[in-house]
Amino acid sequence: MESVTHMPSPLVSLIKPALALVASLMLLLIPAAAMADTRDVQTAWRLLDYMAVDYGGAVANGAVTSASEYAEMNEFAAGVSTRLRALPATPERQSLIQQASQLQSVIARKGSPKEVAALAHGLAADLLRTYPVPLALGKAPDLATGSRLFAQSCASCHGITGDGHGPDAAKLGSVPAEGEMTP
Prior knowledge:
Layout: H1 10-54, E1 59-60, E2 63-64, H2 67-86, H3 93-108, H4 113-130, H5 143-153, H6 155-158
């Protein structure tokens, strides 16, 4: 039997490199999407952790004790919901979105700090179970940049030393007790 050598057509010789290029470009997009998802998960987790701890400074016994803190809690809860909706679909994502909605409802009705903390911690744990991401920084922060940003954006309320007694702190309606803002 005679061997037949099949010569690729010119079209085939053009398609192979084009497919390789498309495949390479798609692989480059995967890390970018994963990185965006990682940041959304990390930010949502940090917001939930903050709300669980700080909500008590906004509401006590069903009444707002600090309007600015309460507004912040509402803003953060909405931010968590937005980030959850932006995550890739998984079987658990809808449950996370429902938990975030429940957290927003409890904050809206000025639920107890204990209830908000339990919901926020539960949602944070479920979030990491569904979308496992590292929470530690990949590298040490630039302290000079952090110091400059703190002086520009935070010191007016938190004070230059972080003690909570900055020049604008009194405008917030609640001044921290002595030692409350220091580690």
